Amino acid sequence: MDRTVVLITGCSSGIGLHLALRLASDPSRSFKVYATLRDLRAQGPLWEAARARGCPPDSLETLPLDVRDSDSVAAARARVTEGRVDVLVCNAGRGLLGPLEAHAAGAVSSVLDVNVAGTVRTLQAFLPDMKRRRSGRVLVTGSMGGLMGLPFNAVYCASKFALEGLCESLAVLLPPFGVHVSLIECGPVRTAFQEKLEGGPGGALDGADAQTRRLFSLYQRHCERVFREAAQDPEEVTEIFLAALRAPRPALRYFSTERFLPLARLRLGDPSGCSYVAAMHRAVFADEPAEAGPGGLGGPKLGALPAAPQ
Q: What keywords appear on the UniProt entry (predicted)?
């Protein structure tokens, strides 16, 4: 029986690395995994872990793939020896944290290029063959930051909101071609993602005003608590990917945790946005006095609701 051919972007660490290992070491031996990395010099940890887990030698292969470069994406596609990709996992991503006005233009462009344009380039390379074959699965690493705005994550959230629209539009279009698109909505995950933030944590915070710096300090304290209480191990999250991959009728969205769904429901339940804005502000900036009254931050109290991107 032919194995399911899976190509995953962003496998140097985190979710991509753990998903590649999970599939390559699956007891069914039904997967051939192409784990792609922007720079193959970073593949050492992947192969070390693969040896430790006893992955069969023909179950895993690494390829260079830089989602910022269409030629690099096309070259990776051409090196898939089976001539097809059954499951495409768009996982490559970057974060950007800090006050919007402090971000360098290059950092903003880089995040949008990887997270949004990079996903588009990858889909443009692999979707045509899936449509011709009338078969394919696309899994995209989403984030709760794509379902709700998070303070000090404006550009990151913008990129993840864009992926929501991209994937939802494709999910409506592609079923007649036998192709299904699913978003795996992640909360905080214990990976090196925070260490790889574009421009570093906080960006050029020194140039921000005193109140913004205080708010950022409160946000950092909030995130530390959220990660301490709610962060998931990447192995746990990869099981959600596997469930989506194997589902006979895949859903558009899968959630790695239900902890943040009350906030998502609150955002949808009040189309004006006032309830969500008030609740999120209180949750993150509990020690900061907020303006009340018309146009202020009044609204229903939901307690200290958590918020942190993947």
A: Lipid metabolism, Oxidoreductase
Amino acid identity, position 270: D
Q: Is 172 exposed, middle or buried (0-12, 13-18, 19+ CB in 10 A)?
A: exposed
Burial of 201 (0-12, 13-18, 19+ CB in 10 A): middle
Q: What is the pLDDT of residue 295?
A: 43
Q: Can you give the pTM of this predicted structure?
A: 0.89
66 marked among binding-site residues: yes
- Region 181-190: mean pLDDT is 93
Options 156, 219, 254, 276, the catalytic residue = 156
Percentage of the chain exceeding pLDDT 70: 88
Annotated binding-site residue? 20: yes
List of residues 6+ apart from 41 with CB closer than 8 A: none
156 a catalytic residue: yes
pLDDT digits 0-9 by tens, 131-176: 999 999 999 999 999 999 999 999 999 999 999 999 999 999 999 9
